[in-house]
């Protein structure tokens, strides 16, 4: 009898594991191949070979790029290279990426930049907020941008018990921002369990020096976050659920869910086209290839544009798609007056004239 119970339990356990493995393959689009969509006039950006996970563009066309992310389970081509912030002027014909100097008081050796967001003060001073993972922890670093010197002056490190596994931020006021948490567990193997069991335990946080609170929850893995042009709505990508959530922002910074757009691809960072308000989404067409990196069969890239986001029927078009032969692991895309710049988690960056 005891043996029978044991065998039954073993069989049930194996069946569950098998079922979960199938579910992981489905969730990561493990059998998907991309159809190419490649604009004519594109070239790889020189000097950006260790990733360009997130990009944020100022109204003037200056683009900040976070580079050198080290993230558990993700390949890295420059394991000994500390993270850096690059600048590109998208007004130039062939914009170059220029590394920004960082003030000496900041610990550059452990700099591990992830999501970024710019903020311009009333006096036009530009601040760059950077999600940082020094020693795999999560902090938010505030830098002041010195345009003439092409440098960043470190002002402050923000830490908080709710700022865990932070992926991206969007700054909405001086020292006020929304941040996404991409995993509930911090242990790598438990994060795999979290993914396999399809737990929806991650959230969006509002941070200010006076108040820190969870303002939206129930995400499988909240990733990219940005704000609409009119500043009334917050857009959040849930990478494992392959969708974008539209949330209404209230005066007390609370968020209420408005709708969810399913995209069928693993959505990473989000940006806004300053001319149209469309969302540009950097996506992973096949995340299994990203997690299980093979240079012979690399992960591809995909950039989607969501038109008329707030209308009843938003439409979706593909701005760029490649099977990894040119660009691997796209995580973000920005547009600036007819230019498209695509960044990746660990690979190169691509600049296109549309
Ligand atoms: Ca961002
Ligand atoms: Ca991200």
Shape: globular
- Average pLDDT over all residues: 96
Structural class call reads mainly beta
Low-confidence stretches: none
CATH topology, anyone?
Answer: Neuraminidase
Oligomer: single chain
Can you characterise this structure?
The chain has a 5-stranded mixed beta sheet, with no helix packed on it. A 4-stranded antiparallel beta sheet has the order 1-25-24-23, with no helix packed on it. It has 3 helices and 25 strands. By secondary structure, it is mainly beta. It has a single domain (32-353), classed as TolB, C-terminal domain (Neuraminidase), CATH 2.120.10.30. One calcium ion is lined by residues 54, 56, 115-117, 168, 269.
Features of this protein?
354 residues, mainly beta, Neuraminidase, 5-stranded mixed beta sheet, 4-stranded antiparallel beta sheet, 3 helices, binds calcium ion, metal ion binding, hydrolase, 6-blade_b-propeller_TolB-like
Brief summary of the model shown:
The chain is mainly beta. It has helices at 2-27, 188-196, 287-291, and strands at residues 41-44, 54-57, 62-67, 84-89, 98-99, 101-102, 113-120, 126-132, 139-146, 151-158, 166-173, 176-181, 202-207, 212-219, 222-227, 233-238, 243-249, 255-262, 266-272, 279-284, 301-307, 315-322, 330-336, 339-344, 350-353.
List the helices and strands and how they pair.
Elements: H1 2-27, E1 41-44, E2 54-57, E3 62-67, E4 84-89, E5 98-99, E6 101-102, E7 113-120, E8 126-132, E9 139-146, E10 151-158, E11 166-173, E12 176-181, H2 188-196, E13 202-207, E14 212-219, E15 222-227, E16 233-238, E17 243-249, E18 255-262, E19 266-272, E20 279-284, H3 287-291, E21 301-307, E22 315-322, E23 330-336, E24 339-344, E25 350-353
Parallel strand pairs: 6-10
Antiparallel strand pairs: 1-25, 2-3, 3-4, 4-5, 7-8, 8-9, 9-10, 11-12, 12-13, 13-14, 15-16, 16-17, 17-18, 19-20, 20-21, 21-22, 23-24, 24-25
The chain binds calcium ion (2 copies).
The site of one calcium ion has 8 residues, from strand 11, strand 15 and strand 19.
